[in-house]
Each structure stands twice: as C-alpha cells, then as structure tokens.
Amino acid sequence: MRITNIAAYQQAYKKSVENPEQFWAKIASENFVWDKPFTKILDWNFNDYKVNWFEDGQLNITTNALDRHAANQPNTVALIYEPNEPGDDSVSITYKELLEKVSRFANVLKANGVQKGDRVCIYMPMIPELAIAVLATARIGAIHSVVFGGFSAQSIADRINDSECKVVITTDGAVRGNKKIPMKETVDEALVTCPCVEKVIVASRTHTPVSMIKGRDIWWKEAEQEVSATCPAEIMNAEDPLFILYTSGSTGKPKGVVHTCGGYMVYAAYTFANVFQYNPGDVYFCTADIGWITGHSYLVYGPLLNGATSLMFEGIPTYPDAGRFWDIIARHKVNIFYTAPTAIRSLMGFGDSFLENKDLSTLRVLGSVGEPLNEEAWHWYNDKIGKGNCPIVDTWWQTETAGIMISPLAGITETKPAFATLPLPGVQPILVDENGKEIEGNGVNGNLCIKYPWPSIIRTTWGDHERCKSTYFSTYPGLYFTGDGCMRDEDGYYRITGRVDDVMNISGHRIGTAEVENAINSHTGIVESAVVGYPHDIKGQGIYAYVICEHTPEHPDLLKKDILMTVSKIIGPIAKPDKIQFVSGLPKTRSGKIMRRILRKVAEGDVSNLGDTSTLLDPSVVEEIIEGAL
Ligand code: WT7
C-alpha cells in the first residue's frame, strides 16, 4: 500500500482515476482483515446522493487496529500518553495491553446495555481512556460521537439529543495548562435536557468532587473490575456507521457527519501510510484533540491501523512554556510531527529562545492541517523545526472527507510553501465557477469540488439525509462541493484559499457565522447581529460581531463581556468574538439580506473598495459602521 517514489505516485494516481474500483478493491482486500470479503466494490450516485463501498464485506475496524498487531507485534507501543504536567510520568501502552484495555471497556459498555448501533457520547480530555472509549465503542459495533472537551453543556446536550445517545463517557475533571476544568459537572448540566441518556461512565482524572447519581452514574474503574478482558469484536457490515462527528456549516445547527466502517478504515490507513511515510519504529506525534476529525483519523485510527506508535498529549503548547512541543519531541524522540498552522504561528511569536537546547534531530517529517499554512509560518516551521531537512506535508481535508485529500507525500512530492500540492490517489478535484462550469487548465482559481467518490466520503448527516444532499451535492449538481476556494497554479499544484461559505476557521476550529449570531441574539437586549471572520495573525481568522442593541448600552464594555459569557455558555469559549461593534443598523438589501461582503471588508480594515452598494436599503448605515470600526 506504500508509495515510495514520485513515479509510483503518478502511476497509482493514473490507475486510481482510470479504474477507481479496481484500485481501491486491491488496497482494501490486500491490507486488511475482512470477516467476510466483499464482492461488490462501489455503488454511487451524486445526484440523488448515496455511496456504498465494499457493501457486502464484513469487518471490525478494531480487529484491524488492534488484534492483528497484538498478535504480530504485541510489545510494540501503540499509544504514548504525555500528561499535562511535564514532571509527571508518561505512559506507554503496547498493542497487547491496548487490546486488553479496549476489550475490558467494551465489556463495561455491554454490561451497561450498549448494543450494536447504539450511540455513545464521549466527552473527555486527552487521556488514554478517551482513545480506549472510542475503540471500545467501535469494538461492540456501537457508534461513537465524540464531543470536543471545550464545548459547553448546551452544545453537548444538542449533540446528545440529535443522535439520541444512550450512554455518556466522561471524566471527573480535566487539566489543561494551569487550569482545572470541570467535565462531569458540565455533563450533568447537559443531561438535565437529555432524557435519552441512561448511563454515565466516569473515569477519574482530577479527583475533583463530583455528584454521582445512583443507578445512572458509574465509575470507570469500578465497572472494569466486574468484567473480563476479552471481548470478541462485533462483526459489522462495511456500510454500518462507525461514528458521528458534529461539525459546523452555514446554518445555525451543527450537523452530525456520518462515516462508516469499511471505507473509513481503508482510507484512514492508506492516507496515513502514504502521506507521512511511516516506518516501523517511528514515533508519531499528532497534536490534535481526538474531539476533532484529525484526532479520529490521524491520532487513533490511521496510526493504529498501521501498527504505529502514536503519541497523545494532554496539555497545551504553551505550558509550562512555549517550548513544550519541542520538549516532547526531544523526550520521546519523535520522528513525525503533525500540528496546526495556528500553533506554529503562536509558537513562532514567542521567539526562538524556546528552541534553544531542544534536540529535534529525530524529526523526519512535519505536517500541517486545518487552515492555510501561510508562507512566513511555513518557512519558520521548515527552518527552525525541520532544520531544512524535513519535508512539510500541508494536508488539506475536512470532517466530511474523513481523510487527507490533497497533500504532498512526505519526501516524495516536491513541496511549495502554502500549497497542499497534489491530490492523493483516488481523489479527483475539479475547480468550478459560480455557475458550476468546470475551469480547466492551470493558473486558475475556482470553487473546489470533487467529482468521484473516495472510500471515506461522508455518507449522510445523522437523521437528515436531505441536509446532506442539499449541503454538499446541490450547489453544483453531480459534484461534491467542499465549501473551499482554491487556486491551481501553473504547475497544477493546489492552494486552498479559504472558505467561500459562511463558515469561519478560527484557530483551525470550524465555526458557523449563524451559530455565533444565534448565540449573541439570545442575549437579553440584543435585537440582531451579524458575524464575519477577519484575518488574524495567530488564529488565522478572528470573529468580528456587529451587534444591534434595543437601547444604547449604559456600560458598553460590560455588555461586551456579558455577550462573551453568553456565547461561551451556548457554544463554548472557542466561539467568543474577538471584536464586538455596537451598531444601529446592518447593511441590508431591499429584500432584507445582510450584505456580508461589506461587513467583511470593514472587519478587514479595507474600506477603500466596498464594491457595489447600490442595492442597499439604507446606505447611511455603512458610513456609521465604517466610523465605528474597531
Ligand atoms: C476546513 C475543514 C481537516 C481536519 C481539520 C479541519 C480548512 C483544512 C487545510 C489546509 C487550507 C485547510 C478548509 C476545510 N482546511 N486543512 N491544509 N489548507 N485550509 O477539519 O473542521 O472539517 O474543517 O478546514 O477550509 O474546508 P474541519
């Protein structure tokens, strides 16, 4: 499955386009354990959306991620856990041990009534139990829905209710840097409005006092004592759902992106092996939280499917200081490092003193994901971290694609700063104009679409297939629309230019403008608001909110803080606006549509050319907004 040179890439790419079915069937059948081999390869329709890969095959992803390695290389370390406190011991878990831990916890889930197809919500910090909970859920054929530990009670409740989770797995508390964060307490607050939840399983991390309700709440440790450490993996159909992961779109309500067992397994494993060029014995460190798709595919499943050693870090890049990542790399002799542009820019800002005396000589490959990696950050990463010796893989993909789509293969594809470069085998990108017409040739810009299914394409949005169809397959009929703008340069290299829809990318976190507006509008005394993203040196984008109040605020600064509290409560701290400007009106067209283009320009600080404002209902509001701009 490993491509080792550029000619092999070109050949694989060619095959994957000429005969995608044969291409993927070969990879899928030769590199994985199937309980029942598939005979059907692909059935698809992008017009009335459906995709089925390896449909009549049967498997369990954990057999592939754990059992086969536990048998062949039992003492290879599967997971390294680096705790928040640098002085605390790290923990290494071998494949043999991980299989036992996962099997034991799988039995705990079963003992608590979880069955194949049930949904399990996981709300935990970055500790080994999080990875174990994910894998245990998959082992018994239940569907995990991991909710990032930074989301609010309200957000947890919305996600639990949308997919009717039966069980929640959490911890007493979490530690991030020098902060202690409640987890169980937040879950308790969420559960007030979640009648579907029958059991809550609590792992202990901080020994924070928590309320434990008789009959509902169970301690992880105690429950484990009651069960055995072997649990046969449930045999799944390839198209049975493996997980749901909620992500933001243009509308207010996050959608549950659904991925399925077979295709996801094949694509996560294939892309991990090829993009990072993992060699046996390498230590691989992905800094993403398992609560995001990067953590799912490239901290847990991709590495484990390849029998790799994956390092998970509980803390933050700036604790105890801005050298923490480099310490971890030196301490664990990390060979492959995968992080986000926002982290690179932030650490770059702390200066190079934090790099002094850090032995980064084991590094071989550097990766980036989540947002465009600007040239300045690219060069710093390349020079200071990679010492000019490590290829940078700038990987473009999305929650919906589940795996890397456009990226260099480390050491194989020639890289270019700020470019995701070329599509992986099996990925057929196409640029289209506003009308959906293909833009051919090189040196062009357009909206990025994909014209053929790859194994881990989104299957549906939980409980609402129409929404999946209309979000991804109706803008440009017959194509999957990514929501991203993209340039293809003279060499045919792809550069992602950012979202073209109402989705913002704040520090690599995806947040819908409508979600933030809804949260602001629920604050007392607020009439209306409009939210846009604007360029931010470290976060990539910041959130700029224009807010109309019922009355002129008496204490505007206090009101701004109150609004931030409301947004934190409703969504989570990651969605807090960076700037709030109180305005008396918003630029609207005669039909009542907010002209966001103008608001974006003002937020960017570029008011020289606002474009056509002739359709505005009341052009004077624009003057006022420009004058009051922050
Ligand atoms: C959006 C997807 C993919 C996992 C993390 C984010 C942006 C992602 C890149 C990149 C430029 C990128 C896109 C995309 N994005 N990677 N290498 N260069 N932009 O997943 O939360 O689903 O967000 O992130 O805009 O659509 P996500």
Give an overview of the whole structure:
- The chain has 630 residues and is α/β, with parallel strands linked by helices.
- The strands form eight sheets. It has an eight-stranded mixed sheet with strand order 12-11-8-6-7-14-15-23, with helices on both faces. Strands 5-4-17-16-18-19-20 form a seven-stranded mixed sheet, with helices on both faces.
- It is 31% helix and 23% strand.
- The model has no long low-confidence stretch (mean pLDDT 97).
- The protein folds into two domains: 6-450, Rossmann fold, CATH 3.40.50.12780; 505-628, 2-Layer Sandwich (GMP Synthetase, Chain A, domain 3).
- The site of 5'-O-[(S)-butoxy(hydroxy)phosphoryl]adenosine (WT7) has 21 residues, from α10, β20, β24 and β25.
- This is Acetate--CoA ligase.
- One of its GO terms (molecular function) is acetate-CoA ligase activity.
- It comes from Sandaracinomonas limnophila.
- Keywords: Acetylation, ATP-binding, Ligase, Nucleotide-binding.
